[in-house]
């Protein structure tokens, strides 16, 4: 876990550390947890809510490591997941021996949680600690998860856990309490289900978490889809749904965390990463935003809390810069945060990101791409990698159902073999993927870091011979006169001259007939 | 089809847009009123959705723009843009081509009629 040690020195680094944790989660699952517990004891010492709050905000980006925000509360078990990149605990973290963390991690990971954390922890500890995780989650969850991201926690889960939140009052973040409740419920429920919430969280993790998360994703999807009706088609829904689910769970934490996790998950594309949706919430902040802003009041209430964390974001961003995956994730987070502050940002952000994710249908892409997303290009690249995984894992662009609907439109009596449907889905996904990729290269060529509708339209028009009216906006395509060389013009003039001269001569010599014959070429020319 | 009539305005538009390299900010709703009536004539509701009208207008503008660009490509080889270039481009679309030739021939007839009318007036004047 390279990410974890570096962040320690500064709070900004913390986020960076967090982000790496998820990917490293599987590899060094023990490390993050180890660090976390190490972090926590030091963290527990600084009781100040301020550090916690920034941590919380950071936690949103976090990687599974539950620890840091909780330090005050759960000194014992928290491996201090990098969730709350507390400035104080950070420095302490690196020195702490990682192996030590491993032991507490399973518990801590389980407890903290954030639903996605749990899942990640599950993944990490899947082999070993799953039972321990389930047992421990209740106490730890209450403390940490609240502050952190409730990425995976479906709304349904949140209800049952009122008792658990109580222990978490120590959590600095105001929203944590509310989150905690929802989270705890979710977490507890999630603990058992741990996998699903985590998966729901990030699209990236999505792919990684696939095996366990698929069920969770499905659960979350209905939630998310209800939240975000407008833009996304089925394919987009999983990504968005995850975000929605996350958003509903914990607005502040999620916003930051999800984008980070998403990115991280996407970046790493490692199965164990999914469990590590940890610190970095998947990118789709833009998609997340609209979900968060529009659908739930809960989210809105949490949003102001996130604003608190927003200052921490810049720190995080700085930290992440050294690390590519983090930076990309951070940027979206940052954008996300920025977007959050203005609140109900244009719902466009959502669709925009999602298309890049290659989850939207082609038709939707131009519209969704219309909005500008600075980190979209980066996100897209990351997403592409992640998307392929997600698609396989269940983050489909096109479901069998939509294939059936299309078929009905063409011919109600037609039937398709299941293999044919599968291959059609694959073709659609590959198409969306290739279109998005090329569109991004065109956007880059345009010296812009935003994927816009015109990039996609140009590609389709030139390479696929597909004209999509209605998306061009207010611009008319300029006409360029065919470039003619001076040399060519001179040659043509010389030919004409010679014809005229010869025609005159012919007239004089040959008479009218010759002139007519010679004259006709002139006319034609 | 109103191609011939649309052809002339399109020529004018193409001519105006050619010199500048920057893309024009095109006005939205240029054909809105006329298109609504035309859509009604083709079977749509008497009051179609504004989005539908906008979409149809986008389609029309894109088609005309594309046609003008291609005609210019052909005309530049000949030297100048002419009606023949447009007729050449729609040669594969029989209904459009027929309508275009019909409208062009009608235009010629009207010209002749006006000319004859003027001549008649002159004759009457001379007779008187």
Automatic annotation (TrEMBL), chain A:
Biased composition (Low complexity): 13-38, 53-81, 120-143, 173-189, 219-238, 309-333
GO cellular component, one term: SAGA complex
This protein's record includes keyword Zinc: no
Biased composition (Pro residues): 1-12, 39-52, 82-98, 160-172
Entry keywords, A to Z: Nucleus, Transcription, Transcription regulation
Top-level taxon of origin: Eukaryota
Record-level GO BP terms: RNA polymerase II preinitiation complex assembly
TM spans (from-to): none
GO MF annotation: an example: protein heterodimerization activity
Subcellular location: Nucleus
Ranges of compositional bias, category Polar residues: 190-208, 254-278, 290-308, 360-374
InterPro entries, per database record: Histone-fold, TAF12, TFIID_TAF12_dom
Pfam families according to UniProt: TFIID_20kDa
Residues annotated as domain Transcription initiation factor TFIID subunit: 399-466
Stretches for region Disordered: 1-374
Ribosomal protein found in the keyword field: no
Family recorded in the similarity comment: Belongs to the TAF12 family.
Protein name: Transcription initiation factor TFIID subunit 12
Biological source species: Hibiscus syriacus (Rose of Sharon)
UniProtKB/TrEMBL annotation, chain B:
Xref: Gene3D superfamilies: Histone, subunit A
Source species, domain of life: Eukaryota
GO cellular component: nucleus
Pfam name, any one: TFIID-18kDa
Disordered, as annotated region: 1-27
GO molecular function: protein heterodimerization activity; translation initiation factor activity
Family that this chain belongs to: Belongs to the TAF13 family.
Name of protein: Transcription initiation factor TFIID subunit 13
